[in-house]
Amino acid sequence: MSLSLSFPHLAQVVAALPADIPNPAPVDPTGGSQGINLLLSYTKWGVLIACGVVAVASGGLIAFGTISDRPGAAEKGKRAFVYSLIGVVASTIAIPMVNTVFGAST
Predict the structure, then answer these.
(1) Which one, of 97, 14, 86, 103, lies nearest residue 51 by Cα?
(2) Distance CA 43, CA 80 (A)
(3) d(CA 21, CA 23)
(4) What are the pLDDT digits (tens) for 32-57?
(5) Helices 71-104 and 35-67: angle between axes, nearest 10 degrees
């Protein structure tokens, strides 16, 4: 059984399709507003400042835990320091990636 026997109107439907399917260029949905860039900039600096504060504070927690013989506090400080470094690396990778994606759509 052929496809044309299963769907007798298939040839008419295919013939009615337009020859050239339009492919419009991407359009900036913000209309050129700088608000999105400003929001991303504030977020970027906020994340980097927060990671810096956590790195400094975790260094103090490591010192406090070591001097006061509290290994749990020193361990939390070490863990927080590693996570702050992971946060810095993640944000520095995400920033160019977001800029590339937004740059490709304009």
Answers:
(1) 86
(2) 21
(3) 7
(4) 678 777 887 888 889 989 999 999 99
(5) 160
Tell me what pLDDT residue 91 has.
86
Per the listing, tokens 């103090």 go with 60
Residues 83/85/90/95 CA torsion (nearest 10 deg): 140
Q: What SS3 state is found at 20?
A: coil
Cα dist. 98→2, 32, 62, 68, 77 in Å?
49, 17, 34, 44, 31
What is residue 93's DSSP assignment? H
> Position 30: which residue type?
T
Nearest partner of 54 among 93, 94, 91, judged by Cα: 91
In whole angstroms, give the CA distance from residue 103 to residue 46.
Answer: 22
**How far from 8 is each of 1, 2, 12, CA to CA, in Å?**
12, 10, 8
Domain boundaries, the chain: 35-106
